[in-house]
């Protein structure tokens, strides 16, 4: 038997199309508008389009849908390519720009005019809205609707030639002002807009609308299956009308799927742009951003994002995915890959009074208990170490199995210690350091390592540890309740004011000296961390917490 791709409703449509010879091949495209950075929702669309092409031995284009110059920039064109590539997808030579089709799109518009299917309309934007009617009321025909073909051709040519001011005229399709589908009530195809385009410069002062440019771009590229999000379902009749009226066969097929929504996340580019422009975050790649570049800087792996996209599947109706699933995917990926190391985020000094001053030793520490092939490393140990402040309580509740006066714990990979004395600042009462003794007989891996105590703590040798900065992140958006993109106006009220915590006095084990930017570790008992690619340096290591260890994902 042949290769059977995993089935989702889109694959079922494709199977049927291939069986019925509607198409004899599969060709998809990912069509971002270069007006911002890609986000995790785009990753879903990328994985879907490139995945479907691969599953069907077909092709997938990367096409910049750059028909609206007002917000488009080269910076975005470049970041989008970097992000798609980083996710692990390859368009090879199939990189296209809708703006490369401007001349063809113009010619098609002339054809529509010649066949009596488009006209130049002088109504203002406001009037066009008023004439369009409502869902319950048919629209009114424009007084310009019955201009002659000759007049329309002349006016459209002059629109292109720059004879008319911005917004003074549009080209409209002549369809049906009484259609129950508002998109079919003589939609605008072209508008006059003097705006510099990042590729075509000032060559054009008329620009095509998405609903017109998109089906034709698909047709020009011989796309078979044009996958888009659900809000375009109502636009499909116009997609089909455009291609059918121009006699284009075989017609690419528009298929809609539900866009990805995530809890605690707003994805619309408009909102992400505001976060960046108003300096709520440190750029599009801030580790809290749901952008691909933000996730990358945070420490997410391409594999974890692809795995996430696979797991959520494709749906026909909108829903909200728990962001805990994305976090689950990165934990799954890093569990067997990330070396374990020790880092103390909020240090409390601890002196082992019976450990000889000036003595040090190297302990054996496994790099990853989940993956013995990762071997072991040497961990320096000495008389003074740091432990985590909250691993000690002077007056602990009953089941506190960490350190307390008179209580014993094991130091991971090292010895059992006992807390003998608490040194405090006399005036403030602040705990300055702990005095402990260690039991030399209990060295981990040694002959008498079997003695059991309830708690095991991570630690860093004060003599050897490297001072580092650690950045802890929380969700940018507090509210669990997801709102539609149109409703994000109030996002500022839902903004988490405490989404970033910078800890500047952390200590990490000396083995992290020279850790490469972008490398990922599990800090024992703390979570997964990644060396920041933007600000970390050899002199001052900076780590981003990718995710904590506790998995809140439940199926
Ligand atoms: P946004 O509304 O977030 O600004 P967009 O749809 O305007 O996104 P485009 O650059 O036009 O952004 O999107 C490129 C492709 O990615 C489109 O096919 C679009 O449907 C898809 N896409 C965008 N957001 C999502 C999402 N949340 N889930 C799935 N696909 C998405
Ligand atoms: Mg779009
Ligand atoms: Mg958009």
TrEMBL record:
It catalyses: tRNA(Gln) + L-glutamine + ATP = L-glutaminyl-tRNA(Gln) + AMP + diphosphate. Residues 26-335 form the Glutamyl/glutaminyl-tRNA synthetase class Ib catalytic domain. A motif ('HIGH' region) lies at residues 32-42. The keyword Membrane does not apply. Belongs to the class-I aminoacyl-tRNA synthetase family. HAMAP family: Gln_tRNA_synth (MF_00126). This is Glutamine--tRNA ligase.
């Amino acid at each position: 038997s042949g290769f059977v791709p995993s089935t989702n409703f889109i694959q079922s449509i494709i199977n049927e199309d291939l069986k019925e010879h509607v198409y004899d091949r599969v060709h998809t495209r990912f069509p971002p508008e270069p007006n911002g950075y890609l986000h995790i929702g785009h990753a879903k669309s990328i994985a879907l389009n490139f995945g479907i092409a691969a599953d069907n031995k077909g092709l997938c284009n990367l096409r910049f849908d750059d028909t609206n110059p007002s917000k488009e920039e080269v910076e975005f064109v470049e970041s989008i390519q970097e992000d798609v590539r980083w996710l692990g997808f390859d368009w090879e030579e199939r990189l296209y720009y809708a703006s490369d089709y401007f001349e063809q799109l113009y010619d098609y518009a002339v054809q529509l005019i010649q066949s009596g299917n488009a006209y130049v309309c002088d109504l203002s934007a406001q009037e066009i809205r008023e004439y369009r009617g409502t869902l319950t009321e048919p629209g009114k025909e424009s007084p310009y609707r019955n201009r002659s073909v000759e007049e329309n051709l002349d006016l459209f040519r002059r629109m292109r030639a720059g004879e008319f001011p911005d917004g003074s005229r549009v080209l409209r399709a002549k369809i049906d002002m009484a259609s129950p589908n508002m998109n079919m009530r003589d939609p605008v195809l072209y508008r006059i807009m003097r705006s510099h385009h990042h590729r075509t410069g000032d060559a054009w002062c008329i620009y095509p609308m998405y609903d017109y440019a998109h089906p034709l771009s698909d047709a020009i590229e011989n796309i078979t299956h044009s996958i888009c999000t659900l809000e375009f379902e109502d636009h499909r009749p116009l997609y089909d009308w455009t291609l059918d009226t121009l006699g284009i066969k075989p017609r690419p097929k528009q298929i809609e799927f539900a866009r990805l929504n995530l809890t605690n996340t707003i994805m619309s580019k408009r909102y992400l742009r505001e976060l960046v422009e108003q300096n709520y975050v440190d750029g599009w790649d801030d580790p809290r951003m749901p952008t691909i570049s933000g996730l990358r800087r945070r420490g997410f792996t391409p594999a974890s994002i692809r795995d996430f996209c696979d797991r959520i599947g494709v749906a026909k109706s909108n829903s909200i995915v728990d962001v805990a699933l994305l976090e689950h995917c990165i934990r799954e990926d890093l569990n067997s890959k990330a070396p374990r190391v020790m880092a103390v985020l909020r240090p409390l000094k601890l002196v082992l009074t019976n450990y000889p001053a000036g003595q040090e030793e190297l302990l054996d520490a496994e790099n990853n208990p989940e993956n013995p092939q990762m071997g072991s490393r040497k961990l320096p140990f000495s008389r003074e170490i740091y432990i985590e402040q909250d691993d000690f309580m002077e007056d602990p509740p009953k089941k506190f199995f960490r350190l307390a006066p008179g209580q014993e714990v094991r130091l991971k990979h090292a010895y059992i210690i006992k807390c003998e004395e608490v040194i405090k600042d006399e005036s403030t009462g602040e705990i300055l350091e702990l005095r402990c003794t260690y039991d030399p007989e209990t060295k981990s891996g040694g002959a008498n390592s079997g003695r059991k105590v309830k708690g095991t703590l991570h630690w860093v040798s004060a003599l050897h540890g490297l001072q580092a900065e650690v950045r802890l992140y929380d969700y940018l958006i507090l509210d669990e309740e997801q709102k539609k993109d149109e409703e994000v106006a109030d996002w500022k009220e839902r903004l988490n004011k405490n989404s970033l915590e910078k800890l500047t006095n952390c200590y990490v084990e000396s083995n992290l000296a020279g850790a490469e930017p972008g490398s990922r570790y599990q800090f024992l008992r703390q979570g997964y961390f990644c060396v920041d690619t933007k600000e970390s340096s050899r002199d001052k290591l900076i780590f981003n917490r990718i995710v904590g260890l506790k998995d809140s994902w439940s199926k």
